[in-house]
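Predict the 3D structure for this chain.
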Amino acid sequence: MLTHLKKTWMALTGLLAFVLIAPLASAGPLDGNSSDVMLQGFHWYSYQTYPWWGVIQNNAATIKNAGFTMVWLPPPSDAGSNEGYLPRRLEVLDSKYGSATDLRNALAALNGQGVKPIADIVINHRVGTTNWADFTFPTWGSDSVCGNDEWVTTQPKGAADTGDGFNAGRDIDHTKTYVQNSIVGWMNNTLKGAGFAGWRYDYVKGYHGSYVGSYNSRTSPYFSVGELWTDLDINNPNPHRQLIMNWIDATGGRSAAFDFTTKGLLQHAVQNNDFGKLRDSAGAPAGAIGWWAARSVTFIDNHDTGPSYPSGGQNHWPFPGDKVLQGYAYILTHPGIPTVYWVHYFDWGTATRDAIKRLMDIRKAQGITSTSTVSIQVADGSKYAAIITGSTGKKVAVKIGYGAWAPSGTWTLATSGTNYAVWTQ
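Done. Predicted structure below.
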């Protein structure tokens, strides 16, 4: 494993750091200096708008014109749950989001706009077709279930789990060669055949990261990101982001990871006027983007953490609703690959949509990328401010919080709102 110190050094050395890790499966955002911005193209209750794939198809041009280059879509396969996170028949693309034809039409519309569709890959666990573990499409035996899964059976089971257990389904034994081959076949033939270009891996703490590296090597995605959601100590975030670094290392550098550290620190900062938490002891951003920005996917909320529309949702860890634009002002001006949540962009009204769109336009115009440099100017009890340098040398200055601050020199105020402002130079 690369150490904390080496990760910090890699974040500062860019291209040289890139050559130290295993080669990527294909060219794409993870090669560094990426200008990609991803949209999460659903929320927890999207299945209630049937077919959701039709909503995606009808909004393909809007998504492209907004500036999104990738769209993360919900699990596409038949499942034992409405939302798709209890996968059942992987090779069957009829789901609560629409028919297989609806899905292919949506993917064709996105690809026709030059937007890359990213599939939600749920392979930690699976449910049977009619009972606990009668797996069909594809057919797997009882030995595909981890030996320490809670399933009580006299049938032979597989090896011990290589990660955390998941009680809502059968934990899948990724050490089995036939299981690996079957998963790769599904990804290459069924999903890429339908039009998907990349992967979002669900619940990656449930199996070893090396399997994600292997699956990416064999499927050559445009993009890959894993969901490693673990407990965060706001007062000691380094162990949290080190776990993210360790997982990326385990994939051989072949996948990015969601920057849960930045999310937690950022929402704590705006909620509690504790902006000092956003700067680490080395003067860098305190989230995963401070150590390995090219492999860090930033976000404000998602289908698990935040609200759905028109109301409700899981709300397991929501960003303060009245401070969401402060959050976007941060992630859309900083390195990493930012993700915008569907509900915020499409469902919270034109004012919120226009504000996010303006921030995205600034990011693009100033050449801010996944590996742009950050110079933090101040991080205290009332404000955070930083100057970020784009790939062409253009600069952005950003301030969030109620405290007063403005960059010195000749700058143009590009956008502002309640407790945030962005300047360009």
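Residues 1-26 have pLDDT under 50 and may be disordered.
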